[in-house]
Amino acid sequence: MRKVLCVDDDPGVIQLKRSILEKAGYEVTACNSAEEAIRELDRVVYDAVVTDWRLGPDSGRAVVEAAKGKTRAVVVVSGYVAEAFQAAEPMADIYLEKPAHPGELVQILKILLESGEKSQKDFPVQETA
User: Fold this and answer.
1) Which residues contact 43 (CB under 8 A, 6 or more apart)?
2) What CATH number matches the domain at 3-122, 3.40.50.2300, 3.40.1790.10, 3.40.50.300, 3.40.630.30?
3) Residue 81 pLDDT > 80
């Protein structure tokens, strides 16, 4: 079973993402801060990280930086996609605008983890109108 670290400062969003990903067959660990997520990444090997960009006083950038090179996929799901997408390297593999469609999130994770390729061009930025 593939392990996914899910990071968001909103308990309701964490619960929803956890439920979606567990139903898709992933083993999910939830964290509600960048600091907690970074400690978890140092402690356990994860296949993927799904993180918000704004985490209360913290930044998802720290989570993305910590995850790069330690996981096969890094997905940012945020209401601040434009801000996250414009951040300097390291960049996530894909950015999804909140609220992301559950099926889309699951499909993207599946593709990223199965293909072994991490190409932003394969998954354009998703923005809602």
Assistant:
1) none
2) 3.40.50.2300
3) no
